[in-house]
Write a structure and sequence with these properties.
The complex is a heterodimer of chains A (313) and B (354). Chain A is built from 13 helices and no strands. Chain A is mostly helical and 313 residues long. Chain A has a single domain, classed as MetI-like fold (Orthogonal Bundle). The longest helix of chain A is centred in the first third of the chain and has 36 residues. The two termini of chain A are 15 Å apart. The relative contact order of chain A is 0.13. In chain B, a hairpin with a 2-residue loop joins strand 1 and strand 2. Chain B is mainly alpha-helical. Chain B has a domain of 238 residues: MetI-like (MetI-like fold). In chain B, 56% of the residues lie in helices and 3% in strands. The chains are: A mainly alpha (313), B mainly alpha (354). At the A-B interface, helix 1, helix 5, helix 6, helix 7 and helix 10 of A face helix 5, helix 6, helix 11 and helix 13 of B. Chain B: It comes from Fusibacter paucivorans. Chain B: It holds the Pfam family OppC_N. Chain B: It is found in: Cell membrane. Chain B: Keywords: Cell membrane, Membrane, Peptide transport, Protein transport, Transmembrane, Transmembrane helix, Transport. Chain B: InterPro entries: BP-dependent_transpt_permease, MetI-like, MetI-like_sf, OppC_N.
Amino acid sequence: MKKYLLKRVLISIATLLVILVILFLMLEFMPGSPFNDEKLTTAQIELLNAKYGLDKPVIIRFFNYVKNMLSGDFGVSYTISKNTPISTLLLSRLPISVTIGGQAVLLGTVVGLILGIIAALKHNTIWDTLTTIISVIGVSLPSYVFALALSYSLGYKLEWFPLLYSSKAPFDSSILPTISLSMFTIASIARFTRTEMIEVMGSDYIQLAESKGISGIHLIVRHQLRNALIPIITVLAPLIVSLMTGSLVIEKIFSIPGIGSLLVTAIQSNDYNVIIAIAFIYSAMYIGIMLVVDILYGIIDPRIRLAKEESHE
Amino acid sequence: MNNTASEEQLIFLENDFEFVSQENRTHIDETYMSQSYWKDVSKRFFRNRGAVIGLICIILIVFMAIVGLDLNEYTFDEQTITHQNLPPRIPGVENLGIFDGSETMNTSTGVVNRNKYIAEDGSVTGLEDVYYWFGTDVLGRDIFTRTWMGTRISLYISLVAVLVDMVFGLSYGLISGYFGGKVDNAMQRFAEVLNGIPNLVVVTLLIIVLKPGLMTITFSLMITGWIGMSRIARAQMLKLKQQEFVLASRTLGARDFFIIFREILPNIFGQIITNTMFSIPTAIFTEAFLAFIGLGVPVPMASLGLLISDAFKSFTTHPYMIIPPVVVLAILMLSFNMLADGIRDAFDPKMKEM
């Protein structure tokens, strides 16, 4: 276990370092310098360089850069909102994105589990087929298709929900984005739960439990679902990715002032510092969650750990 | 009971002493007949209704992407200012009351049903003989032609995805798994680090360096698209390389290259095809997603994501603009997914229950 843990942590740190190196190199080789005012004399530029530590060797500058990035100092925005520190820009937007993402994960997991369980219990009936169709559609269609369909039907035609996000009614206006963002989660969790449940239902220990007289909800929840749930952790990684990419389009469609829409604006207006900061945050989040998932998995299911260690040898 | 049977007299007939002809007695077991691998696979595949429907839809879409651009007189980038925002109008069908060029609009004075092609008061609009099958967009471009142009881009992307999977992913995984040891260790660490970088970040950073466009999307697919395939290829290689036929081949003097690509590759073909098929919808999705947030192909090119993104801006007033690209994209994605499911089940029936 220790060896596995150490390996995972080292890989994560290496990945983060690689990302930092790439981001640093991009800043280094980006055309232009911060001081390209023609009135500045060479001596003045040298002074400015010394002030900001730009005269130091690359290695030292890199370490300074890493220190800044890790402590949350991402510099200032160039174009979106001039000279505002990026950390303040992010701090006001992060909670909104996290809230909607969290709601989507919650809704997706609950609905997905219910659908998956129904499909497995009513295996090979119309319910099963229906769930399969829903999950195939959910996996195949991009989230913005759902977003457009929902905002046109429920938002524009029926006027049940607001078309755009507003900070005055954050919950009401986050319902449509949450649903459209959670479609992929619903579909993949339903699919996976179904598979796992069917496998578990045919296993020896369930037969034993049944022959002991356990039945009904107790059998499903305590004996079947619990064992079926373990592998569902593996779906988490693609879900995180889908939430990240999904948030970009969803936030654009519903004009939600979150991280995703900030990234889109930053790319469109070439605000490098903001792009790099968000790229770093996304990577750090992704790496962190992947690490937690892998370690959790190693703890919950020792077989996986052994298999992974074996295949690495 | 038995008594009655034994008491019955046996009467011999003439033909009782003839040889029994084998003609009608033997039959070939068709139910459990042994079949060649590929015949078996294709039989299972064609029995799967969803997969066949998916395949037919894909063939139709590919066909339309090839010929669709030449079916009418408009080109995908031709702008006619006088033909802005025209609703769909199809000759023949218009007499049925649908696709007749009229649209219902919510204006400040209430709901108005109007037809831009034919004026109600009989005045000349100059558009009486103009037909746009899917209508036109805000710049007066033909949506029909643009939709099929966009489909071409999506199909190109799926081709790139397949190539990346087959060339990079497959070789990487096979080589890493075959040689093992230090080579494997180094290659796997590299892949793990690369896999730890979110796809979105790779694309974003590429876009800063390069310009948004088809090349950038192709590059980003090349950088990250192959990792899933390499894992599968490696796992299969680890499973197969210990087997006797590999040892036999090596004993006969086969080189590493020969063993990897001629001995082992054909044995893992099922998994490879299945995985490739699953990577196509992901790639199409990536392009459509990038185009939607404005990082796709530059104008006046058209991709499905770009068309959806453009039409989205006016989709409450002119919903007809967004329907064709969304429908084509949806059918394409669904079809590839169903096809991939079908191929997986055909190659590995055990997976069907999964």
